[in-house]
Design brief:
Chain lengths: ~400, ~325
């Protein structure tokens, strides 16, 4: 079965579980925020869940993600539990960062290959390009993925990172989550392009446009992109068109969004659409939905309880962990013979193997390039092999 | 033991580390085919190949960002800034992302970021910077400023093996101007340890990088006048070896700090605060500074000489301090 082939019933139900869990978890966090149990800001992915869940669903277990602030769904797909998200937002000592950072700013580089988000937009593009280059160098067949908003595409790091990724043919997929608003600034004031996907053309890389509110379409498009990247054909940019259905964060009522725009999008809710699809395709019934929903409610309830019963960090722990002095080991996991990159096998003639562009600007016939290329994976990794979630246990 | 230049010591350190550990890679502008603007990486591409010596676009943020990512993937990247002035282009990703990574989410960043800094070669305002203090003010980074070939080699090897982002500032004035015999086998010099370069009883001169040599020259001429200066080479600015500074001041009771960096916000201020906090009662004179002026680095030789410290300026300040 090709990884781009259609989704099984089990996978549909699994997708529903993650989409619903994403929505319910964030709804719960809004309640906690209003109870002053979440410090700082609270950002929502309301209406954008299909992009986080669908894109992450296209990845294989060894792949890497770097979510952004509205990608809690991607974390959940990669095996992050609600309690990690909740303790993190509530600044508890049991949180993944032990209270050092809030929101969804945490990662797990070692086991689940999650690189922490940052508030500085664009940085994760060169960072994930580097992870992709590093993994390729070690002979791993990994793909890396990150997300960025429409506003983030205006940053310098976006340009530098994507350009470098394209030059390097890095196995990297970028999801441009065009929710049309960067805080209060509409996308028209961010870019003169009609489609942000066109940015990819300037870098000589492939791009796709997808309806970001259609979970199945997101999975399908992301799978194709992941396969393309894994095969060594270069990075892919996917523009997922959507709409931010809330403010920038909880404090923001988003009165600047024209009412008509929001109304137009309210009928395109990704959860509603996916549920309708499941019903139309007869992939579930009321009983199955109830089982999944009850499971989610139970999981969230248990994890909220865990988070509320967790202590805040002891004040003096603020001093810990600035430097890594033996607390972690940096380990290269080789999946190719090291001899390939060591002398004498690595020795080359130190001159450019490329023919230069001729005087009239036309390219001469393609020279055989000796610079390294990732060997194509024998078979695209199967997306189905990801973190197993039993639905309706 | 062969005589080795500061530049050759740096090249040897990279060469040997890449030979020792296949996880070590080098990336930067013109580092491959050309061997680097100062030839610090000459011969590395021929030996280690395209995958390990990576010529990049002119994109300092992408160079640093990709190096951070390579570190997460398990490599030990060395990233070169062609001139350290251009590190400003990557300031954000160094200070906001790389420096905070381990503190916030426990992900080490085994990155070396190296490049030529400093003036004295008439490089003008965009090729002479000493930007160390921007980064000394950033917890999570280490900042190394070697003054000798032996230290350059040993500290660079330590930096490659370190699990933290290490900024390694190579003073370009020293690249081909100083030579010394250095051990031929594998050796490291620990990050975070200062070294007393010259013993003395009358005052302490604390300096680093190119200004260490100006300070030593000043100390030699002072000795002819009967003033014995102790000269401390910081070697690492972050973490700062406060103990060695304090021990020297407790012995000499007078402190002069010399740096090529500009005056306001230079490391001299931090050192003065350290000594006032830790050895106030030992001081017999006010703490003095000899630094560059609070201006951009000017181009004309007459201007640049006026701008920078020199052995004569250091000696003059030391004389006053010794007489106080």
């Amino acid at each position: 079965m090709s990884s781009t082939s259609s989704l099984t019933r089990e996978q549909h139900l699994e997708l529903y579980y993650f989409l619903r869990l994403n929505r319910e978890l964030e709804d719960q966090m809004v309640r906690l925020f209003r109870q002053n149990k979440i410090f700082g800001g609270l950002y929502s992915s309301l209406g954008q869940e299909a992009i986080s869940v669908g894109a992450a669903y296209a990845l294989a277990p060894g792949d890497w993600i770097a979510p952004m602030i509205r990608n809690i769904g991607a974390l959940l797909v990669r095996g992050v539990k609600p309690r990690e998200v909740l303790t993190q937002h509530m600044a508890r000592y049991t949180s993944p960062t032990r209270g050092k950072d809030g929101t969804s700013h945490f990662g797990d580089w070692k086991v689940r290959h999650i690189v922490s988000p940052t508030s500085v937009l664009g940085d994760l593009i060169p960072v994930m390009t580097g992870v992709a280059m590093g993994g390729r160098y070690l002979g791993q067949k990994i793909v890396t993925m990150t997300w960025i908003g429409d506003g983030g595409t205006s940053t310098g790091a976006f340009h530098e990172g994507l350009n470098f990724a394209a030059v390097q043919k890095a196995p990297f997929v970028l999801i441009v989550e065009n929710n049309q608003w960067a805080y209060s600034t509409p996308v028209e004031k961010q870019s003169a392009l009609k489609d942000l996907a066109d940015r990819a053309r300037a870098y000589g890389m492939r791009s796709e446009i997808v309806d970001g509110n259609d979970a199945v379409a997101v999975v399908r498009t992301a799978r194709q992109a992941v396969e393309h990247a894994r095969a060594g054909s270069g990075p892919v940019l996917i523009e997922a068109k959507t709409m931010r259905m809330g403010g920038h964060a909880q404090h923001d009522g988003a009165e600047y969004v024209p009412r008509a725009t929001r109304e137009a999008w309210s009928g395109r809710d990704p959860l509603d659409r996916f549920e309708k699809l499941l019903t139309e395709k007869k992939l579930w019934d009321a009983k199955i939905k109830k089982e999944i929903d009850e499971r989610i409610a139970r999981e969230i309830r248990e994890d909220v309880e865990f988070a509320e019963n967790s202590p805040l960090p002891p004040p003096e722990s603020a001093e810990e962990g600035v430097y890594c002095e033996g607390c972690h080991t940096v380990e290269a996991v080789w999946q190719r013979p090291k001899e390939e990159v060591m002398p004498p096998r690595s020795s080359v003639k130190a001159e450019w193997p490329l023919k230069s562009v001729s005087a009239n600007g036309a390219r001469p016939p393609a020279a055989k390039q000796e610079a390294p290329k990732a060997k194509p994976a024998k078979k695209p990794a199967r997306a189905a092999a990801r973190v197993k979630v039993k639905v309706g246990r | 033991m062969p005589e080795t230049t500061y530049l050759e010591a740096i090249r040897q350190a990279m060469f040997e580390e890449m030979d020792r550990d296949p996880a070590v890679v080098l990336l930067g502008e013109d580092v491959g085919v050309y061997g680097g603007a100062f030839k610090a990486s000459e011969g590395l591409l021929a030996r280690f190949g395209w995958e390990r010596v990576i010529d990049t676009p002119i994109s300092e943020s992408a160079i640093v960002g990709a190096a951070v990512g390579m570190g997460y993937a398990g490599l030990r990247p060395i990233a070169e800034m062609q001139f350290i002035d251009f590190i400003a282009c990557a300031f954000e990703i160094i200070t906001n992302y790389a420096a905070k990574s381990h503190y916030l989410w426990g992900a080490p960043v085994p990155l070396v970021l190296r490049g030529p800094c400093g003036g004295g070669v008439h490089g003008g305002p965009y090729h002479s910077a000493n930007p160390e203090m921007y980064f000394v003010h950033t917890p999570g980074l280490k900042v190394v400023c070697p003054a000798t070939p032996r230290d350059a080699k040993g500290l660079l090897k330590s930096a490659v093996r370190d699990n933290n982002p290490v900024l390694f500032f190579e003073h370009k004035y020293l690249y081909r101007r100083i030579k010394e015999e250095i051990p031929s086998g594998d050796f490291t010099v620990p990050i975070g340890k200062a070294e007393v370069r010259r013993e003395g009883r009358d005052l302490t001169i604390v300096s680093y990088a190119a200004m260490l040599h100006a300070s030593l020259e000043a100390a030699t001429s002072l000795a002819k006048e009967g003033i014995e200066a102790e000269v401390v080479d910081l070697r690492t600015l972050l973490p700062l070896d406060r103990e060695t500074i304090l021990a020297s001041v407790r012995k000499t009771n007078r402190l002069l700090v010399v740096h090529e960096d500009t005056r306001t916000g230079g490391i001299a201020g931090e050192i003065a605060a350290t000594v006032i906090e830790g050895a106030f009662d030992d001081l017999d004179a006010p703490i003095r500074r000899v630094t560059s002026l609070d201006t951009p680095v000017p181009y004309a030789p007459s201007l640049e000489e006026y701008f920078r410290p020199s052995a004569a300026k250091i000696a003059a300040a030391a004389r006053e301090l010794a007489r106080y």
